[in-house]
Amino acid sequence: MSGFSTTPFLHALPWAAGAVLLVLSATFIASKIAHKHSVIDTAWGLLFAAIAVTAFICSAGHGDPLRRWLLLILPVLWGLRLAQHIGRRTVGKPEDPRYAEMLSKAKGNPDLYALRMVYLLQGMLALLISAPILVGAFERAPVWGLAWVGVGLWCVGVFFEGVGDRQMERFRRNPANKGKVIDVGLWRYTRHPNYFGDACMWWGTFLIAAERWPGLLTVFAPVLMTLLLTKGSGARILEKHMASREGWDEYAARTSGFFPLPPRKA
Predict the structure, then answer these.
(1) Do 153 and 211 fall into the same domain?
(2) Is 241 helix (H, G, I), strand (E, B) or coil?
């Protein structure tokens, strides 16, 4: 059987939006308890896990079972790992300076400003970026080779993201490295192995959906995520913060900005 289940897909969209609003509401309550809006960073991965679960439930009987399972398991594993990593890293820490600076510009109630500019904005982005998950789950045609290429690319992405995060954690735990720039492991080949891994994961997810029409139309999702990671709130802002650290200029001169490459000679 082939074809796209259009009507069930359209019926699933409000449920996906509701799942996002549920996670955002719980996150906002948690932020009030913790007295910091940076809690939303921990919830970022959970938004995609919630959307994947919703798509899987709503697509029962309307999509290829194997593709549905892939588009459930992969985003949920990624989302839970990311939430656990960020939550453990930020527990007990004060408000993230990014959010503090943003909220300092708020006119009127800062909580309402945060709801608009942080929570709802990230919820909308999560829905857009999850388009391959939502669309692919309702494709009835069987999985072919391109989807397995996507699974392989997803595995590469999780490797770079997970290993890069662990290497950074070990580096930060050493007091001798305070104020310095990490230049070991995967960080020798790219200044942002975790962001590169994140991009690979989303391009892999897209390939799982892109085997059939209209999955190809969701190419905007990995493009948007890649732009956010490289030009938006990811690498650009982080490098602005890192520029004042000891050895940054030399590190940036010899290390690829995104794609892993052998270090350039000084």
Answers:
(1) yes
(2) helix
